[in-house]
Amino acid sequence: MTENLRVAVIGAGRMGADHIQRLHTRIHGADVAAVVDIDLDRAKAAVAHISGAQAFATATEAYESGDVNAVLIATPGFLHEQALLAALKLDLPILCEKPLTPDAASAWKVVEAEVATGRKRIQVGFMRRFDDGYRQLGRLVRSGELGDLLMLHCRHRNPDTPAGFTNEMLITDSVVHEFDAIRYLTSEEITSVQVRLGKATSKAPNGQHDPQHVLIETSSGVLADVEIFVNAQFGYQVATEAAFEDGIVDIGGDGGPYVRRAGRWGGEVTPGFEERFGAAYDAEIQSWVDAALRGEIGGPSAWDGYATAACCEAGVEAQKSGDKVAVVLNEKPALYGGDSQ
Ligand code: ISE
Q: What is the DSSP letter of 225?
């Protein structure tokens, strides 16, 4: 029988805590062996109910415990590069939450380091690829059943933003998902990004211009427009309408029971991404664990992380200039040649 993965989760914040719970209660083939957080008390609280798991303030200590053979990185994006390079040196299977890194140059360093190991070790946490709606839409695009895909209209709305969420993060933390989803749905690279700033909500914290309208173009000319609205108050919504030559497809509409009661009709608005994408996160982590036990990755690669980092960089430049900014990518290394996006 194959032994379970012994996972060190680095970062016990909102996403890290969610993954710890998932690994501990729902995922087969993996155990939480260690939780690492610069706030040791937070790490200790995260392992309190998990027998056999230890808390550490640094990843080095977790690795030196000798009880870890895989790593899930859930720290803020600007800390990823160092954590990724260290884990690659130890030849560990890695699940890295998005973004791979915040800019294209650091993401490329990670790609080069992985290429030097000769195999794919890094899976990037673009969970939408595991969401039923995105999967079905991806299949429809690839089947050609509705003719060619022409346009995508994407809506990405969050109720509010955590402290420290900057104007750039509307692109690097939120639209990054759209970049990956568009690449996934079209199986094409993105060639340009433009950002328009229109009328802003009074509900956004200082420094954020919210909402923003992002126009994205792929290599065959598919246009995708994204409304990114991160202080939308009412709840969480990620939805896309796809226009094909022979039909229109909607994904991500309201879910749950539609209730008629006491003279009213309706249902509940999804509160946040944990609820909207809970099943997708479960499928993503299970796929990573299953693949890691075979010595492979089970989802988007470091190349996908790099390509989206390049889109984010163009997006941040476009936010500032208002211009249409080209996305320029380095040549795709052979290691990722066989990837279906
Ligand atoms: C957050 O980090 C996520 O990944 C969510 O999916 C996204 O909706 C949100 O805008 C991000 O800040």
A: E
